[in-house]
Amino acid sequence: MPQLLFYLFAALSVTGGVWLLLSKNLLHMAFALLLTLLGLAAIYVLLYADFVAVAQIMVYVGGVLVLILFGLLLSSNSTGNFLVQEPVNRWLGLLLAAALLGGGGWILVHSFSEAFSKYPAVPALAEQAALGKYTSLHSLGRQLISTYVLPFEVASVLLLVALVGAAAITKQTSRK
């Protein structure tokens, strides 16, 4: 069953990524990014990385994506017509993407082949999940609302001020 869920969430992430690449509307691109990020967060949950999954949702979905949506909805041009879509730029972009993908894949293959030959297998994820209270979200949450409450609240107020400032700047430039 976990393998089936993994493939389902991986397909969801890949579908969102392909939709992101093929869409021409910026709002649709933002929703495709949302789909991709949520699929990745679900994969993190399956890998017993609960904190990474929650951080993925809070930071990327809750922060970055909402900021992108605010920027899109406050701007007057949400169709993406300001992007240069000449055939030369598309081929150049495709060539650059292929070079980056090929180079990154070559680096990954060679670095992992050396690492797997030198070191023993990684312990099972179920054994890592058995660490219990030391890696749980419950203990992290307790620390955030007790020991680290002041830095946590300062960061949240700072993000709120930045969002309000960005909205005010965007509104002023749209009036001109």
Description:
Helix 1 runs antiparallel to helix 2 (26-46) and helix 2 (26-46) packs antiparallel against helix 3 (50-74). This protein has 176 residues and is mainly α. Helix content is 80%, strand content 0%. The protein has helices at 2-22, 26-46, 50-74, 87-118, 125-129, 137-145, 149-175. The model has no long low-confidence stretch (mean pLDDT 77). Among the domains are: 1-75, Four Helix Bundle (Hemerythrin (Met), subunit A) (Up-down Bundle), CATH 1.20.120; 136-175. It has seven helices and no strands.
Mean pLDDT score: 77
Elements, N to C (H/E): HHHHHHH
CATH superfamily of the domain at 1-75: NADH-ubiquinone/plastoquinone oxidoreductase chain 6, subunit NuoJ
Helix content: over 70%
State the CATH architecture of the domain at 1-75: Up-down Bundle
CATH topology of the domain at 1-75, by name, is Four Helix Bundle (Hemerythrin (Met), subunit A)
Question: What is the count of helical runs?
Answer: 7
- Oligomeric status: single chain
Shape call: globular
The amount of beta strand, in percent, is: under 5%
CATH class of the domain at 1-75: Mainly Alpha
Which helices and strands appear, and what pairs or packs with what?
Elements: H1 2-22, H2 26-46, H3 50-74, H4 87-118, H5 125-129, H6 137-145, H7 149-175
Helix pairs in contact: 1-2, 2-3, 3-7
